[in-house]
């Protein structure tokens, strides 16, 4: 059967430096939601006037003085972000955006300062859009990331996200992940494929088309099966499903391939930000004097609870940079699992990668 080309989503999961013409090389579905002018990368390129772009996946800064200097910081790497007052080159106070981020086991600190010299901007929250867009990104991970055993089903019905439409409900779908199989239901939408067990709705998977690398039909010990392979950023799982009769299986296969192709042409990352409405909110808040620059602070603890960050880091480190190939590691026999597997990189344990969801420790 036909395979689907894999185009890994890295923009929200990586920090990259000096990517040629990065501001014009956005991926499909990525949009610039706000542009902030006259901004300096104080820690890395002091003295260079640049622009700060907030997209639905990342923050981009690029220099206007030296075209090769730029930064791309994915929202998925944010740890802490706030605004600070700093001293400008002219000697007066100005505001700056501080971002603490992590990448490849390294902590990065970024400071983007307003160097416009415009006194009217001194007391304006010029970085507010960054915080609002980042908040939206945090709340829309189901658009972009695979989720296992999530609270996504209520009384047998999928909880629909904004701009999501249910296109098909398919009953009688066997999940072949266990020896006996589990009978459940497919929900096919314009954004993702969801399967949940009929006997236990919490046993489910939400798989965005974004994280599907391959769909095919192949023979299994249960007969013809729908086999879906997730992308590396989606865990690299191989999922098998049986649907009877075979004619119905073929129909579902063609439908999923079609939806995946349509989505790939115009991905929806879930972040919807209206700059006009944001300006109206700003004006209203300014009138009531409720807005203070120092109040904008976000510490991202939610993502730590939602996903296994060690697994994400491991997968990100193993992803090849465009134009290169990832190093191949030899297979070794794993006593715990009972089969051969790729040798784990130094600094990681099997348990780090086995737990898709993090352990919840009691207070």
TrEMBL record:
GO-annotated biological processes: cilium assembly
A GO-annotated cellular component: ciliary membrane
Span of domain BBSome complex member BBS5 PH: 30-84, 164-218
GO molecular function: phosphatidylinositol-3-phosphate binding
Alphabetical UniProt keywords: Cell membrane, Cell projection, Cilium, Cytoplasm, Cytoskeleton, Membrane
Span of the signal peptide: none
Subcellular location field: Cell projection, Cilium membrane; Cytoplasm, Cytoskeleton, Microtubule organizing center, Centrosome, Centriolar satellite
Similarity annotation: Belongs to the BBS5 family.
PANTHER family, sorted: BARDET-BIEDL SYNDROME 5 PROTEIN (PTHR21351:SF0), BARDET-BIEDL SYNDROME PROTEIN 5 (PTHR21351)
Name of the protein described by the UniProt record: (Mediterranean fruit fly) hypothetical protein
Taxonomic lineage from the root: Eukaryota, Metazoa, Ecdysozoa, Arthropoda, Hexapoda
């Amino acid at each position: 059967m036909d395979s689907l080309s894999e185009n890994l989503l890295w923009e929200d999961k990586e920090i990259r430096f000096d990517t040629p013409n990065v501001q014009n090389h956005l991926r499909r579905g990525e949009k610039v939601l706000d542009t902030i002018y006259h901004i300096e990368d104080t820690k890395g390129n002091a003295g260079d006037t640049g622009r700060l772009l907030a997209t639905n996946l990342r923050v981009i800064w690029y220099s206007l003085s030296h075209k090769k200097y730029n930064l791309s910081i994915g929202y998925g790497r944010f740890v802490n972000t706030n605004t600070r007052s700093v001293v400008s080159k002219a000697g007066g106070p100005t505001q700056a955006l501080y971002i603490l981020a992590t990448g490849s086991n390294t902590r990065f600190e970024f400071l983007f300062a307003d160097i416009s010299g415009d006194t009217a901007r001194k007391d304006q929250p010029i970085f507010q859009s960054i915080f609002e867009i980042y908040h939206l990104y945090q709340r829309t991970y189901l658009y972009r990331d695979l989720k296992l055993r999530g609270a996504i089903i209520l009384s047998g019905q999928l909880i629909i996200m904004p701009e999501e439409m249910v296109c098909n409900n398919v009953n009688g779908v066997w999940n072949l992940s266990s020896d006996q199989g589990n009978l459940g239901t497919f929900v096919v939408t314009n954004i993702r494929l969801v399967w949940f067990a009929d006997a236990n709705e919490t046993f489910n998977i939400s798989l965005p088309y974004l994280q599907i690398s391959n769909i095919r039909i192949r023979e299994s010990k249960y007969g013809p099966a729908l086999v879906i392979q997730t992308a590396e950023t989606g865990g690299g799982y191989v999922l098998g499903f049986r649907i009877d009769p075979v004619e119905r299986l073929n129909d579902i296969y063609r439908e999923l391939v079609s939806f995946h192709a349509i989505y790939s042409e115009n991905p929806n990352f879930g972040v919807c930000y209206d700059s006009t409405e944001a300006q109206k909110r700003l004006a209203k808040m300014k009138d009531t004097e409720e807005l203070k620059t120092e109040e904008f602070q976000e510490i991202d603890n939610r993502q730590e609870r939602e996903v296994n960050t060690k697994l994400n880091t491991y997968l990100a480190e193993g992803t090849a940079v465009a134009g290169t190939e990832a190093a191949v590691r030899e297979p070794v026999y794993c006593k715990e699992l009972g089969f051969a597997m790729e040798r784990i990189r130094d600094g990681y344990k099997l348990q780090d990668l086995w737990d898709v969801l993090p352990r919840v420790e009691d207070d």
